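quick one before i forget lol
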Amino acid sequence: MKKKLLTVTLLSSSSIASIHIINRIKNILHTSKNLLSSSENKYYKWRFGNIRYNKKGSGTPLLFIHDLTPGSSSYEFHRLVDNLTDKYEIYTLDLLGHGLSDKPSMTYTNNLYEQLITDFIKNVIGKKTSVIATGHSVSFAIMSCHNNPNFFDKLIFINPQSLYSQNQIPSKQLKFLKLLFEIPVLGTFIYNVLNTRHSFEKTFSEEYFYDKTRIKQKYISNYLESSQISGYSAKYSFASFVAKYMNTNILYSLKEINNSILIIGGKEKEDIETTLENYSYYNNSIELEYIPETKHLPQLESPDKVLELIKLFI
């Protein structure tokens, strides 16, 4: 019996060690090029971790907030920023748990990001700021604006999450899934299996872009690197995202905010017209614009048209 127990223990230890080595190799392979590093990077020492950000240009403050999907970072706006610096003081940041910002072991929630954006505008920008946010990040931008109206000027949202999806909360099954991802070694291995170059290529071709010929391999590489920076710590925001801990009901805040709001939709994105019309139903001051032949990331797929709308609105 003791021999069998010893054998099982040795085999288990060997398997765990092998998985750990695989995790480390994958991490090294996908972060070795340092694609996201820059001499212009700055860091805001927030109470939950260091937040990487960049500041360019001068004029009216404009803050870009990236999506919360796997691999997301401020890189998603890189085709817009340099074309706006002549008139705007541009801020881009990597949210906690993403890109080059810290990725602490914790549960990431909508309220957490709401606090981060409020503190960043108050302590780093220091002036009333216009905000451009994508996808899932739209919800906490709305919440932050509602709770701190003096910090916010105009708002531009790109392909926000549907209000129905936004109201979904963690179920028992999703809470279990989050715990599974957070298991040392094994959880990291599962995270790595789900976030590969192939998975990002599939997401870009099926969800992010309408015209597949516009997808560049450097986009894939940057998203892949962002998903792997900080090693095993990268999985924690992903676990909270998958388990829907970042969701919250924003209807009351959406109805109450009194800012000028433009929502941009990728015309070919599934159900986007229904999604945007629901937003305008609850706040009839919202302006809607659609960019043809684009899906979830028009700022990468058709940046000139996004820039045109930004300049007209801001």
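fyi The radius of gyration is 20 Å.
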